[in-house]
Structure formats: C-alpha cells, structure tokens
Design goal:
single chain, 297 residues, mainly alpha, three-stranded mixed β-sheet, 3 strands, 10% strand
C-alpha cells in the first residue's frame, strides 16, 4: 500500500468509526428522544457509513497499476465510486424530504406531533461538532492526495452536519415553543434535504462527465498548450485531446518541430514537454505527443 492509499484509508476509517457511533446514538436519540427528524438524520448518517465502505473498496482498486486489460490503469474505478456517493447523497436527501413532508401533512391535518426530549437536542449538537470536524479533516486529506472520491466523502460529512443543524433547529423549536410549533422539526428537515440533494448533484455531475470522457476545463487546456509551446523548438500545438482518469489526466496532442533536427533531439524536446506537464498535473498523467516535421527555409 503506497503513501496515498494509506492517507485515504486512515481518513476513511476514522470517518467510518465516527459515523458508526453517530448512527447508534442518533437512532437511540430518535427512538427514546421522540424525534422523527433525528431518526431521519440517523438514516442519513447510515448513508455516510455506506459511502465510507465504497471509498475503501474502490480506492484500493483504483490504486492498482495498469495491466493487460487496463492500459490506462484503474483510475475510473475511483470516479465510479464518486458517482455512487453522489447518487446515495441525493437519494438520502430525497428520503429526508419525503419523511418531512409526511410529518408536515400530519400536523396540518390536526395530528399533534410528539415533543422531542433533551436527549435528541444533545445528540444533535454532538453530531454537528463531530461531522464538521470530520469534513475539515477529510477535505484537507482529499486535496492533499488529489482524490475526488475522498473530497466527495468530505462533502457528505458536511451535508450530515447541515442535516443535524436542521434537526437541532427543529428539535429546539418543538421543545421550547409549544405544541403548535412542533411542525418546525419536519419543516427544517425539508429545507436541509434540498441542500443535501444539491450536494449530491454537484458530486454526481462531474463524475458522470468524466466517465463520458469530457475534456479538461478550458483553462487547464490553455495551460497545457502554454507549457508545451514554451519548450524551445516546439510550436503549433494542435489536435489537443484531454480527459481525466481518476486522480490523473490523459493528454494527446500533435506538435510541429523542425524536420531537419535528429530524432534524438526531437524526442528530447518532447520528453521535456511531457515531464513539465507531469510536474504540473501529477506523475500519473499520461502524455502522448505526436511530432510532425516542418521544413525550415
């Protein structure tokens, strides 16, 4: 296991342990604290736990070197994991919304909702603090190791903190403002669920684009052109094709060189361009440069 995988495993295992504890605490608080919002929040934490398992499995696969059946490595497995996390996050948000709507309708029809207890309030506070810490810890690790899946998982922690924030607001309102205000609990869950669904979409969309072989952003392609054209003897970068593979990129381009120089010299210039691109975009970058001769007058 390389250093990158160790960091990913460490942050994910820590997140899994915290999530497992929170799941138990939230279900206990939801049942004995008489809070439907807290039970929904527990379900959301359960989705976090599932995504942690997905990251552990898929990052291990993505870290495998290229083989006979995978000439470009296994980076897409990590992208696939990111997409699954986005889907789970959106589904969890939809589930929370449906649950909240059902409770609101019951309240409108005259049914008195149960009053949450202090247990639910305390667990909501604990969840907010622990999940926000997990978000900051995980997002930093994700950026350090350049892992979309880890960063996606970090945002899942943040969404859970937001969910617990909505739960805290609803529980507090239902506890201290009287029976008619117990509707605040499900209303807060509905509002938070919208943010959760949006986070799921924001994670899902770029992963799908990558799986569909979308090009790198225009500013990154411009930077690649600039890097290559700054190498003395290389000019006119064209037929540039780019894509992302997991935490790396693949670049394919045609360039013009003086047709009168030796093959060794042309290869040396191309190697300089390739090395510079890898220094900027990571050592896992796959760079292919097709050299076209131009006769100098």
């Amino acid at each position: 296991m390389n250093a990158r995988e160790k960091k990913i495993y460490r942050v994910t295992l820590i997140g899994s342990a915290v999530n497992a504890l929170l799941i138990v605490l939230k279900f206990i608080a939801g049942i004995f604290g008489k809070s439907s919002a807290m039970i929904a929040d527990a379900v959301h934490s359960l989705s976090d736990f599932i995504t942690d398992l997905i990251v552990l499995v898929f990052v291990k696969i993505a870290g495998k070197p290229r083989d006979k059946g995978h000439d470009y490595g296994h980076g897409k497995f990590e992208t696939f994991a990111t997409m699954i996390i986005g889907i789970i996050l959106a589904v969890a948000g939809i589930g929370l919304m449906i649950n909240g709507i059902e409770l609101v309708l019951k309240s409108i029809k005259g049914q008195t909702l149960e009053q949450p207890t202090m247990l639910a309030l305390i667990i909501a506070l604990i969840s907010i603090i622990s999940k926000e810490w997990l978000y900051r810890f995980t997002i930093k690790t994700g950026k350090d190791v350049n892992s979309q899946a880890v960063e996606a998982n970090a945002w899942h922690h943040r969404s859970d903190a937001l969910s617990s924030g909505g739960t805290l607001f609803g529980v507090a309102g239902a506890m201290f403002l009287g029976p008619h205000w117990r509707i605040l609990d499900p209303l807060a869950a509905i509002v938070v669920s919208l943010f959760i669904i949006k986070s799921g979409y924001d994670i899902f969309k770029p992963a799908v684009n990558e799986l569909l072989e979308s090009s790198l952003p225009e500013d990154q392609e411009k930077e690649i052109r600039k890097i290559v054209e700054c190498v003395p003897g290389i000019e006119n970068v064209h037929n540039l094709r780019t894509r992302r593979i997991g935490n790396g990129i693949a670049v394919d381009m045609h360039v013009n060189m003086n047709g009168e120089i030796s093959l060794n010299e042309a290869h040396s210039k191309a190697t300089v361009a390739e090395t510079t691109i890898k220094q900027k975009f990571g050592k896992n970058a796959i760079v292919t440069i097709h050299m076209e001769p131009v006769t100098k007058k």
